[in-house]
Amino acid sequence: MKTTRALGFSAFFLALVACIVTSSPAFAVTQNPRHVTYDVAIKPQTGIGPPRTGILVLTFNAGGIVNGTYRGTSIAPDPLNNRITQVTGGIQNHQLWIDIGMRGSMRFSGTLQHGNLSLSGFMRGRMYTLTGAAVH
After folding, report:
1. Taking the CB of residue 24, how many other CB atoms lie within 10 A of it?
2. Which residues of 33-71 are buried (b: 16+ CB within 10 A; e: fewer)?
3. What angle do CA 22, 27, 31 make, to 5 degrees?
């Protein structure tokens, strides 16, 4: 009898938690991913050098998960020119972080507001800014 009550209570508790989690906006699994393309420039904060330009395509998924691709379009020498590189990251409120390439070789964090990116980060020991705007 005690085992039956315990199992019944456990099932009720799990069902209650499932209802709370799936009804919360932070866990909305039915939300469709949103795809956005950005024209971006990556500029060194110190020293001299032309900006790297590129196309950043991000997919914003439920739960704040961000993934996508980056393709360099610079006229200056850039190892990422015409190469498609994986992007991973996350977003919470307007705070965005992304890793471009494997093992976070380029990690940027900052804000995404009104379709505009304003990020900073390190690449090969140097500080860079990544700015961009959504392409409409």
Report:
1. 9
2. eeebebebbbeeeeeeeebbbbbbbbebbeeeebbbbbe
3. 95
CA separation (Å) from 46 to 95, 127, 128?
Answer: 24, 7, 8
Mean pLDDT on 14-32: 41
What rounded mean pLDDT belongs to the chain? 80
Please work out, in degrees rounded to the nearest 5, the angle formed at the alpha carbon of residue 38 by the alpha carbons of 34 and 44. 135
Distance CA(93)–CA(17), nearest Å, equals 24
Mean pLDDT of 92-113: 90
Q: How large a percentage of the chain has pLDDT more than 70?
A: 76
In angstroms, rounded to a whole number, what is the distance separating the alpha carbons of residues 129 and 42? 6
Report how far residue 66's alpha carbon sits from residue 62's, in angstroms, rounded to the nearest whole number.
Answer: 9
Residue type, 94: H
Of residues 3 and 67, which shows the higher confidence score?
A: 67
Query: What global pTM score does this model have?
Result: 0.73
Nearest to 100 by CA among 127, 117, 126, 121: 121
